[in-house]
Amino acid sequence: MGSAWIVGAVVAFVIGNATITARAAEIRLAEQFSMGYLQFNIMKRDKLIEKYAAQRGLKDFKVSWQRFNGPVAMNEALLSNSTDIVSGGVPGLITLWDKTLGTSFEVRGICALSSQPFLLNTANPEIKSISDFGERDRIAVPSIKVSVQAVLLQMAAAAAFGEDNYAKLDSLTVSMSPPDATITMLSGAGGISSAFSVPPFQFQQLEQKNIHTVLSSFDVLGPHSFTVSWTSARFRKDNPELYAAFLDAVKEATAIIAADPKGTAQSWIGDTGSKLPLEMVTRVVTGSNVEWTMTPAATMKFAKFMHKVGTTRHEPASWKDMFFPEIGNLNGS
Q1: How would residue 285 be classed by pLDDT, with cut points 50, 70 and 90?
Q2: Would you say the CATH fold of 119-221 matches that of 2-116+224-327?
Q3: 169-217, pLDDT tens digit by residue?
Q4: pLDDT recorded at residue 16
Q5: pLDDT for the residue 320
Q6: Residue 118 has pLDDT above 60, yes or no
Q7: CATH level 2 (architecture), domain 2-116+224-327
């Protein structure tokens, strides 16, 4: 009886360790189509996660990278255990934080990546403000209702038409990746004349004389986090070394962006296969309203709005409720 128990315990120990090893054998990171994830480009180029994981004694593990269009697909991948760390606009994090709060798969933010405005551009000369959009107009956003652009459009509509009409423009939105939306706008085909876009595509659009900006996200919120990263409490608990390595890698990558913006721009071009000129991409990296920072900004403004209009069930008391404690010493909001 005793020997059988010992054998069983050894088997359980081996299986348990095999499970942990399997989890730690790979860290899968997901990003979207924009220049809001430059730290990921640098981390990939310089193998920074590998560097800091190795310093913590991890060996024989893999770092893999994925790209999605919009937060819905990324959050579904996270919930289905098809990816480990995702990144995107603040509403994508809030949506999943709200959905998983109090469950065994609770999701929170890791850190911010950038603060920068995104622009609602149009090729329709008649549209000067969001009040000018009509029933036949269509606005491209990465994901309807839940992308940061879609939520900002709701916030702008609430300010322009009253809070009860926050969804007034939702019926005009169409899910489309920023590259595809840009191609459609520039070609004049496909019935999409407007796009709530992302850098650098929003600036590529504005190079055309017939395209102008209707609204900046900073007009609605002031300076705010554009991109953040998030994961599940389970991944953080099961892989503390990889989690810590990711944070260290983001910190170094953020410093590299500040020290070498041109090299960073070149890395983004190489990583994405972009045909945009290096000079233009470098200007985006160093824009006057652009900050590459791990500190969350204005996340509570998003959370309060989404709760007020019924998009989410829970309202956090502080931005720290939505992020894991490792960045709790930062002056976030």
Answers
A1: very high
A2: yes
A3: 999 999 998 889 999 988 887 789 999 988 999 999 999 999 999 999 9
A4: 39
A5: 98
A6: yes
A7: 3-Layer(aba) Sandwich (3.40)
Q: Which two tokens stand for residue 318?
A: 């502080």
What residue spans define the domains of the chain? 2-116+224-327, 119-221
More confident residue, 167 or 14: 167
**Domain at 119-221, CATH class:** alpha beta
The mean pLDDT value for 258-284 works out to: 94
Q: In DSSP terms, which residues pair with 277 in a beta bridge? A: none
Residues 240, 50 contacting (CB under 8 angstroms): no
